[in-house]
């Protein structure tokens, strides 16, 4: 199994670990310290070696930060984790706050006193974050102290070793471009910005640029590493040499200078010592990186990571790979749904059993590399926890009479998948059908959207919510995130959300996943992946419009659809979608599954 169900969280760790950390802070003359979920790469998934927030508090979510002062502490999470954090963290030690409505800066502003020293790990807080924190400290008369080491590491006795997962070369036939071509594009962009070099901190940017993949973190095929790319000459890749076989080392040596991670900051100081103008992304680069450059005499050029946009705009090889992966994945998923409909109503199936069976069907493809994230297998009230991770202690039997939410994905060498379906188990209430149908209407609105070039995800986000809003309902997460090409299942800079300010471009892949989650009852989410399509004329229109191509091909559960709530066009979309699923996936599954699929995709 790629997924384990061990209970990773222990709320009882909060008090003793907080005491250990406070003692270490006192020894260092610090009055407080911030512990973010992030590692030095600012990635969503971090190896156990860097799970400091989890060690301190017990919280296992993918975003958050804890603040600890001498007599008070708190943990800050966003709306995805408001339920989870209360189950995983001792609220007496680390009371939960909302990361957006009551950010850590506001909390600190009310508590810091003149003369106090607030410590941070300089590699774990971005340039943008440090500017906000510095302003708060200055206003309070306190001092923000940038540390070169982390006090948590000093008191974390059983800290795991750093990962040394093997690195592999990613074939150009799947990448669609040679690494030399990608490097030339980035170097041209640096010349345009009058930058002598750029610093890359995101492992998926580095993996895409050099056409490599890794295995340092769960479910994302990325090698933890740093890189610098000059506007002219050879780049430098800072990566643990134990990850490289002789053949991979030989191939990379033809592209880049290789060095150990310990040489990264000295390498930046060397750049700064030459008076170089170095591009960094202030939203992604730790302040320690900026300090190494400017402290040695270099100048910062602040701009978005130059790899993000080229990586997000998939070429035809990457898009064809994604389409192929989704057809393969859909066949496995249909096998699962047919099995689920037979087994779940008997009442013995639990959340872990469902997640294990879905992974089993994906393994039977013979080409599964990994799942793309821990499957969210949520029965009853657990379904209302947006990013629920089932563990042995939380595992529920799947009850009759409620929807079951399962959000999962796969990593195949030709593409990354991510799909959510909400499934009726037995007879469900009229209210549940109404909620499901309102979510479906939002999903269809995104899928069928037409929009001019320059449109951002924030402008589309309302389409997914408007029918829920009319009913006085909403969901507290974005409508869609970018997806990589056999890379991270959550990829920027594109997103469909209230904060999605990047214009959507043809070739980008995004999720379409509105939902609704009545706390303590059940969850509903419907997710397909969509490719942004190029400008196309509309009959009678005046300008060409972009749109979406749906590449996920798995039935929606018609037993949860209140047909009367759908418009004629929405009903037509659902029937066309199901006809496509039936024709493309039907030939790929067995006879019994095909019978199930015929029933699941009948016209309404």
Describe, in plain words, how this protein is organized in 3D.
There is one protein chain. The protein is an alpha+beta fold. The chain has three domains: 11-155, Creatine Amidinohydrolase, Chain A, domain 1 (3-Layer(aba) Sandwich), CATH 3.40.350.10; 168-311, Creatine Amidinohydrolase, Chain A, domain 1; 313-555, Creatine Amidinohydrolase (Alpha-Beta Complex), CATH 3.90.230. The strands form eight sheets. The chain has a six-stranded mixed sheet. α11 packs parallel to α12, α14 packs across α19 (591-600) and α16 (430-447) runs antiparallel to α17. The model has no long low-confidence stretch (mean pLDDT 97).
Gyration radius, rounded: 25 Å
Q: What's the architecture of the largest domain in CATH terms?
A: Alpha-Beta Complex
CATH homologous superfamily designation of the largest domain: Creatinase/methionine aminopeptidase superfamily
Task: Give the amount of beta strand, in percent.
Answer: 15-25%
Task: Tell me the CATH topology of the largest domain.
Answer: Creatine Amidinohydrolase
Distance between the termini: 38 Å
Overall helicity: 25-40%
Largest sheet, strands/sense/barrel: 6 strands, mixed
How many discrete structural domains?
Answer: 3
Strand order of the largest sheet: 4-3-2-1-5-6
Please tell me the overall pLDDT.
Answer: 97
Q: What gross morphology would you assign?
A: globular
Q: What is the level 1 CATH name of the largest domain?
A: Alpha Beta
Total helical elements = 19
Contiguous uncertain segments of 5+ residues: none
Q: How many beta-strand segments?
A: 27
Helix/strand-derived category reads alpha+beta
């Amino acid at each position: 199994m790629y997924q384990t169900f061990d209970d990773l969280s222990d709320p009882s760790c909060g008090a003793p670990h907080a005491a250990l950390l406070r003692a270490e802070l006192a020894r260092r003359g610090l009055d407080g310290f911030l512990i973010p979920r992030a590692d030095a790469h600012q990635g969503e998934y971090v190896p156990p070696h860097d799970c400091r927030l989890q060690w301190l508090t017990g919280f296992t979510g993918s975003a958050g930060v804890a603040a600890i002062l001498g007599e008070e502490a708190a943990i800050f999470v966003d709306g995805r984790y408001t339920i989870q954090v209360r189950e995983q963290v001792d609220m007496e030690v680390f009371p939960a706050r909302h990361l957006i409505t009551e950010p850590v800066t506001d909390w600190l502003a009310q508590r810091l006193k003149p003369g106090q020293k607030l410590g941070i790990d300089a590699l774990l807080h971005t340039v943008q974050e440090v500017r906000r924190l510095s302003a708060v400290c200055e206003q309070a008369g306190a001092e923000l102290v940038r540390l070169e080491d982390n006090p948590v590491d000093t008191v974390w006795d059983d800290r795991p070793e750093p990962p040394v997962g093997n690195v592999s070369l990613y074939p150009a036939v799947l990448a669609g471009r040679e690494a030399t071509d990608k490097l030339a594009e980035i170097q041209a962009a640096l010349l345009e910005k009058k930058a002598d070099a750029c610093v890359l901190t995101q492992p998926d940017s580095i993996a895409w640029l050099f056409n490599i993949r890794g295995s340092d973190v769960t479910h994302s095929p990325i090698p933890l590493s740093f890189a610098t790319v000059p506007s002219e000459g050879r780049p430098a890749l800072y990566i643990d040499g134990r990850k490289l076989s002789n053949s991979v080392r030989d191939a990379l040596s033809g592209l880049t200078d290789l060095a150990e991670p310990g040489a990264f900051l000295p390498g930046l100081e060397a750049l700064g010592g030459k008076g170089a103008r170095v591009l960094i992304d202030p939203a992604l680069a730790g302040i320690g990186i900026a300090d190494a450059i400017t402290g040695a005499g270099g100048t910062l050029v602040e701009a978005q990571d130059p790899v993000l946009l080229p990586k997000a705009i998939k070429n035809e090889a990457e898009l064809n790979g994604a389409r192929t992966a989704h057809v393969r994945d859909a066949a496995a998923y249909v096998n699962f749904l047919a099995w689920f409909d037979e087994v779940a109503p008997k009442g013995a199936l639990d959340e872990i059993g469902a997640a294990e069976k879905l992974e089993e069907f994906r393994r039977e493809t013979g080409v599964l590399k990994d799942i793309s994230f821990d499957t969210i297998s949520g029965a009853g009230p657990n379904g209302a926890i947006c990013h629920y991770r089932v563990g042995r202690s939380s595992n529920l039997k799947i009850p009759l009479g409620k929807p079951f939410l399962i959000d999962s994905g796969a990593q195949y060498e030709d593409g990354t998948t991510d799909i959510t379906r909400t499934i009726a188990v037995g007879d469900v209430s009229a209210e549940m059908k109404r909620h499901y149908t309102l979510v479906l209407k939002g999903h269809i609105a995104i899928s069928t959207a037409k929009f001019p070039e320059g449109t951002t995800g924030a402008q589309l986000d309302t389409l997914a919510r408007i029918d829920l809003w009319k009913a006085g309902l909403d969901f507290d997460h974005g409508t869609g995130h970018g997806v990589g090409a056999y890379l991270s299942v959550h990829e920027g800079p594109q997103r469909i959300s209230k904060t999605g300010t990047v214009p959507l471009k043809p070739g980008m892949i995004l999720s379409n996943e509105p939902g609704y989650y009545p706390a303590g009852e059940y969850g509903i989410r419907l997710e397909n992946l969509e490719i942004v399509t190029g400008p196309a004329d509309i009959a009678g229109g005046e300008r060409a419009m972009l749109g979406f191509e749906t590449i996920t091909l798995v039935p929606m559960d018609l037993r949860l659809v209140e047909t009367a709530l759908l418009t004629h066009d929405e009903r037509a979309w659902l029937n066309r979608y199901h006809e496509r699923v039936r024709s493309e996936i039907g030939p790929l599954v067995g006879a019994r599954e095909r019978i199930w699929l015929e029933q699941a995709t009948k016209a309404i």
